[in-house]
Design brief:
It contains twelve helices and five strands. With 266 residues, the protein is of the alpha+beta class.
Length: 266
Amino acid sequence: MNQITAPFGDMMKRWRTSRRLSQLDLALEAQVSARHLSFIETGRARPSRQMVIQLAEALDIPLRDRNALLQAAGFAPVYRETALDAPEMAHVKSVLQFILARHEPYGAVVLDRHWNILMSNSAMGRFAPFIKDPASGGNPTNVMRLTFHPEGFRPYIVNWPEVAQSLIQRLQREAAASWADTGSADLLREMLSYPGVQAAWTHSDIEQPSLLLPVHLKKGEVEAKFFTSIATLGTAQDITLHELRIETFFPADPATETLIRKMADS
């Protein structure tokens, strides 16, 4: 069922149950009566525009989905979606470039909600021998496709099954977290279509003896292990900015640290 055409009450109930909240829990959080919330969910009462925003904030619903809720309730969307290359984004983009540059000599990228690479620092280019995106003629454009496609850098990931299973589960969570956009679900289906990817990975737990699951790369004489951190922008009021992610790479062992600094100095 398409969320935007679904009744508002049904959509609200789905969000509430996905957050594992009772009507009373949500009513207390949103500072509304449980009776009124019940009437909204059953369609006996029509929410005001402010009430929709209030409930969405209490449920911590993504901005894209808040717009969908507003439309379902009969109101115009509140949150705009501005292209990162738009003139009004110039300052934000310069800040992102500053963050990427300051992470040198380690790699860093800016991603959209579908794991497309929007920006990267020069350190990422130094690992070009590992990077090949068959969907774009060799230029890296999508982290998931690079990892899962047999002609990407999948052949160079020593622990690919463990890494792939972890990423599949992340995609599964992201696909379930937003109903206003099917892009994550489409990406998940694409990754599951590749050889060697198991559908069971979407609901299977990973048993790892270490605190972090590093990505172990090896091609010829070059070998490295990385773990990553993913950050988002705080208090973003634009959908594009709200969905941006900054992924930064760190060496997972002293040998990788030495390799990175040697490559940066050459």
